[in-house]
Amino acid sequence: QSDDSDKSSQESDSETEVEQVSGYHKLLATLKTSPEPESEEEEDESESEEAEESEAEMGSEGSQETGEAEVDKEKTNDVPEEEEDIDTAEQMLSQEQADGTDTSCDPRHGVIEEFTDVKHESEFSLETNFMEEESGDCNADRRDSNPFKQHMDKELEEKEIEKMSTLPKTSSQSQWPRLGQVVFSSSLEKQKTFKADKEVDVKQLHLHKPLESTWPKVNKQFLSAADKPSDSSFTPLQRELFCVMNSYRDLFYPERNALTNGEEIRHAYCLHALNHVLKANAQVLSNNARRRDRKPGTDTDDHRDQGLTRPKVLMIVPFRECALRIVHIFISLLEVNDKKKIDVSNKKRFKGEYGSDPEEKPPNLKRPEDYEAVFAGNIDDHFRIGVAILQKSMRLYAPFYSSDIIIASPLGIRTVIGAEGEKKRDFDFLSSIEILIIDQADIYLMQNWEHVLHLMKHVNLLPLDSHGVDFSRVRMLNLNNWSKYYRQTLLFSALQDPQINSVFNKHCFNYMGQVAIRNVPLTGSISHVVVQLPHVFRRLEADSVTSVIDGRFQFFIDKVLPEYRDAIMSHTLIYVPSYFDYVRLRNYFKKEDLNFTHICEYTKKAAVCRARRFFLKGEKQFLLFTERFHFYKRYTIKGIRNLIFYELPTYSHFYSEICNMLKATDSGVDATWTCTVLYSKYDAQKLAAVVGIDRTAQMLQSKKNVHLFVTGEN
C-alpha cells in the first residue's frame, strides 16, 4: 500500500535506500540466463442560475473523471468507514490525475497499443556506427578541461564511496548576483569555492558541435538589449544555472515560474542534456573506429565508455506539451542552418500525438495568466517517449534500450516500472542514467508524488538482464554499482516544499555535491489581498511532524468549528490542501449531520454546479473545497463570507486568490468577513510565503494567535 504523500514529508524522510551488492562478479551473478480537457462550465460571472442548472445537466456527459470509485462514492450519501475512504483515495491517487487530460493517444485505455520505432534500429545503433570526420570534435572531447570527461573519468575510491554513504554533508553559503543565496553541500572534503562566471564565452564551455553555433540563435528570443554587451548567448539566470549544470553538480532551483523564466530554464537544461549526449555518443563512435583500426591481437582496456544500458538522460515533465517543446528545442539546437536540416524519424506521428488543436479550447475561459501558462497545449499526463540522437539524425519513439534520452511523465514512467509482484515490469533501462532532470516538480504534488518517490527508488539499480551489452566497453563505475554517485540531478520547482526537499537531500548522491537556491520571501502573498479582511492565524501545537495531522484535526473540531456552527456564520468555505484531510472532514461532517456541501478534484461537474449554487444561496452553511480542485479548475466561488484555511496552501498565491474571491460576494458592503488560518511550527516555509519572513519569525516565537488586517491598499 502506497504511503500518503500528501500528509507530510515524514514518510519520504524515513525512506530507506535500496542497497544493492556491488562488484563486477555480483553483477554477473544477477544477470538472467536468457537474454481534452473536458468542455468546462465556462461561467461568466454574471450568468444566471438557470444557465448554471442547464449546464449542470449537460455536464456529466463530457467529464473525464479518473477515479470511478470516487465518482460512485460522490453519488452516494451513505459513506462507509473512514478507512475505506482512505483506501479508495490511495487507489485513485495511483491513477492519472483527474480532469483536463487528453486521452486520444493514451495507452491506459487499451485502444491504441504503444508505438516504438523498430525500423531504424541499425541506423541508430551505437555499436555499428563510426564517427564522421566533419562532425568531429573528438579531439576536443579528450581535453582534460572538458567537464564531461572530468566528471565521467573520475575514479572514486572505496573509502570515498563509504564516506558519501555514511557521513553527513557539510554545507556552505554564497551570494550570487542572479540566483541569490546559494547553498553548497557535499560529503567529500576539499570542495573548491565555486563562484558564478560574470561572463561566459560559448567557446570556453566545451560545447559539442554544432551547439556552439546554434545555441546563440536558438536562445536569442530570451535576450534583452541589456544582456548583449556582456554576453551574446545567455541571460543572467541561464548563465548562472548553466555554470552549475556544466560543473556536473546537482541543482535544486525552486523559483521556476511558468510565466516568466520557465522557458529560458527549459532551454538551458536542454542545452546541457544534448551536449552530454552528443559528447558521450561521440566518444563511443570514436572508440568504435579505434577498435576497428587496431592491430589484431592487441587488447586494451582504454575503451570503457558506456553504461550497462544506453539511456543516459531521463527528463521528467508533467504534460505532453512539455515533451513537445523539449523535442523542438533539440531539433533547433541540432540544425546548423536552414540548408542543413536534420533527419527526424516519426516527426509527423509525434506532432499528432503530442501537439494540440487550438480550436479545441473553449474561447470564453477566464483564468489567471499562470494557469494559462501551466495548462497550455496538450495536458495529457500519461506518456513516455525514447529519443535517440546520432550525429545528424534524431529518432523519436526509439525503444528505451536504444534511446539516449527518455522523456516521460511520472505516471508514464511508473506504469513501466510497475510494482513489486507484477509480472510485466521493467526498470533496467534506468540503470545507467547519468543526468536526471525533474522539471516543474511542484505540479507532481498536485498529481501524485508517490510516482516520483517510486522512480527515485528505481534509478541506478543493477539491471536484471545483460541486454546484449559488451562488458569490455562498460565503465568500471557502472560495474561497481556506483552509478548513483555519478548521476547529476537537476530539480526545478515553483516553490520550496518539504517533500521536494526530501528527494533532493535523500536521493541525490552526486560526488560533486549539491547546489540549492534558498532565498526567503521578504513579502508574502497576503500583500496581494485586495479586500478588507481580518486574518486570524491560529497556532496549533504538535510534538512531531507525524502528530501534526491528527493534532490539526482535533484542534479544528474542538476549537475552530464550534465558533462556526451558529447559523449566523453561514457561507463558510473550508480550504483543504490534502485530499486525505478532506475525506476525514467530510466523514466527520456527515457523522455530525452538519449542513454542508463539498467539492474535490473527483466531483462530477453536475455535482460541482449544485454545490456552488447551494453555497451561494446559503442553503448549505459549509463548503469543503480541495486545493487540487482549485489547481485544476480555478473557478471563482461566489457567496463566501467566512474563510477557513485548514492548512496553509501549497502555492502561496492561492492564499490571495481565495481571499479575493470574497469580492465576488454581492452583499460585501454590510457583511462581516472573516479569515482563519491554522498553522504549526512545521509550516514555516508555507507561512513565510504567505506573510513574509519577518512576520513568520515573530509568529513562530509567539504562541499566541496572530491577528492581521489587510486594508486592500497593498
From TrEMBL:
GO terms for biological process: maturation of SSU-rRNA from tricistronic rRNA transcript (SSU-rRNA, 5.8S rRNA, LSU-rRNA). The keyword Heme does not apply. Residues 37-58, 79-88 have a biased composition (Acidic residues). Its main location: nucleus. Residues 525-709 form the UTP25 C-terminal domain. Residues 1-124, 129-148, 285-306 are annotated as: Disordered. Pfam families: Utp25_C (PF06862), UTP25_NTPase-like (PF22916). Keywords: Developmental protein, Nucleus, Phosphoprotein. GO terms for cellular component: small-subunit processome. GO terms for molecular function: rRNA binding; U3 snoRNA binding. Residues 91-104 have a biased composition (Polar residues). Residues 1-10, 105-123, 139-148, 295-306 have a biased composition (Basic and acidic residues). It is found in: Nucleus, Nucleolus. The keyword Phosphoprotein applies. It comes from the Eukaryota. InterPro entries: P-loop_NTPase, UTP25, UTP25_C, UTP25_NTPase-like. Residues 248-515 form the UTP25 NTP hydrolase-like domain. Belongs to the UTP25 family. Interacts with CAPN3; the interaction is required for CAPN3 translocation to the nucleolus. Component of the ribosomal small subunit processome for the biogenesis of ribosomes, functions in pre-ribosomal RNA (pre-rRNA) processing. Essential for embryonic development in part through the regulation of p53 pathway. Controls the expansion growth of digestive organs and liver. Also involved in the sympathetic neuronal development. Mediates, with CAPN3, the proteasome-independent degradation of p53/TP53. This is U3 small nucleolar RNA-associated protein 25 homolog.
